[in-house]
From TrEMBL:
A GO MF term: 4 iron, 4 sulfur cluster binding
GO biological process, one term: iron-sulfur cluster assembly
Matching NCBIfam families: iron-sulfur cluster assembly accessory protein
Name of the protein this chain belongs to: Iron-sulfur cluster assembly protein
Pfam annotation, one family: Fe-S_biosyn
Limits of the Core domain: 15-118
Length: 122
């Protein structure tokens, strides 16, 4: 289920959250003592990196008035309107392996990425 923080329509295609990403984020939030029914993971785009834009994530206690709020697998994800222009249709995942573990964003809007994968251009 997805909603706009101001009560707007269906936004299921805005950002998809995998079960692995939701479980990891919820675990981290609970470890921080956050209320997972109100708070959520903020996913945003910022200027930076060698390709021009980079992803950012942080926990917020509640959405901003104009955020798009997507809830899947029990995790609420907040995306501001400017960031949604760059990451709409993306999938947030969590991967763990022998080399590294962390959240990843699969973004169909990306035209180019830097060599290390930390920044992108649309």
């Amino acid at each position: 289920m997805s909603t706009n923080a101001s009560g707007g329509g269906d936004l299921d295609s805005a950002v998809t959250i995998t079960q692995a990403a939701a479980e990891e984020a919820l675990s981290l939030m609970e470890g921080e003592g956050m209320d997972v029914d109100i708070g959520g993971l903020r996913l945003f785009v910022q200027q930076g990196g060698c390709a021009g834009l980079s992803y950012g994530m942080r926990f917020d206690t509640e959405p901003e008035e104009d955020d798009r709020v997507t809830q899947q697998h029990g995790l609420r994800v907040f995306v501001d309107p400017a960031s949604m222009n760059y990451i709409g249709g993306s999938t947030l995942d969590y991967e763990s392996g022998l080399q590294a573990a962390g959240f990843t964003v699969e973004n169909p809007n990306v035209e180019a990425e830097c060599g290390c994968g930390e920044s992108f251009r649309t």
